[in-house]
């Protein structure tokens, strides 16, 4: 149902403008505006633009409502709260009427989630990290040694000068070792107050670095290494970036930008057409499309790569998709491709929202022989390219979600667990 009129009414009431006055300012009758506000008359074009200007709003905000990605993030925030205290059904209305507050809620929820995940990560590291266990053992050993030596020196028994010198040297050596180990532990856990947000994993740290250039690596186009513009990364993230760069360079050699970019434009960035025209593997073409330099006519393209277990190994999202590593919906076309290695899968995916978000998805799973020989199970990698779709919903569109805990689809046959917050929406 088109709720443009309801949004006009809500924003008019927020601005404390009488219906008669608003109608007069755009040259229509109050009765006609009343029909519009109760969604009994469709509105668009010049009149919508005039009403938006009178209310001091962007016409798109009245016509389309709140951004679906923002609504999804707010629902994620609601999922962590008590269902009885959160009016989840009014999430989209809240985002549309108070976008500034909505962004603040979403940002604070993201920060809370990041802190919770970092706390869990640190707990796991404390429990399982052998390096940390070794460091703590070193601290305890040094403290015990210093305590024992001090007990001898302060005891009742007389210690000659030669042994005193030895004990003093031992205390100095143990204290030095304790100071070094303690400094390493502080660096392990602590971070400066003004430091940038800490990435939760090396993989996310690498993707954060890649996102600064849209995953485009100009140095790799020329066969170079990491550029001076790359941020300082942890050892784990730097290793992952090196692996990404090696594959990127191989893709760039196989599909040089000078020939690939014109072919992509001519094919309207359709990976199937580009793959057929250039005779290159579909997954390679999709990786290349998702990492193109910014072009005026190029649509935003996302990329998702996962292994046979469905674990996401690379994620580049697109506006409004709200993709997350945790708990991806099993109906995404990439998982269909995993069950049919070698077969290209193309589908329109529809995310719930007001309005809904439609994405054109292309996916394929490739079988990679195990490096240890044919007696070992093969490795499977699935790749999916995502592109925003502004056209009408296809008859065979696939209803997907960000994950069962956040998805408002109450009648989904693939649901694995109930939503964390009861969303009073039927889709």
Automatic annotation (TrEMBL):
Q: Which InterPro entries match?
A: Cro/C1-type_HTH, Lambda_DNA-bd_dom_sf
Domain (HTH cro/C1-type) ranges: 8-62
Look up the domain of life of the source.
Answer: Bacteria
The Gene Ontology terms for molecular function here are:
DNA binding
Recorded hits in Pfam families, A to Z, give: HTH_3
Q: What is this protein called?
A: HTH cro/C1-type domain-containing protein
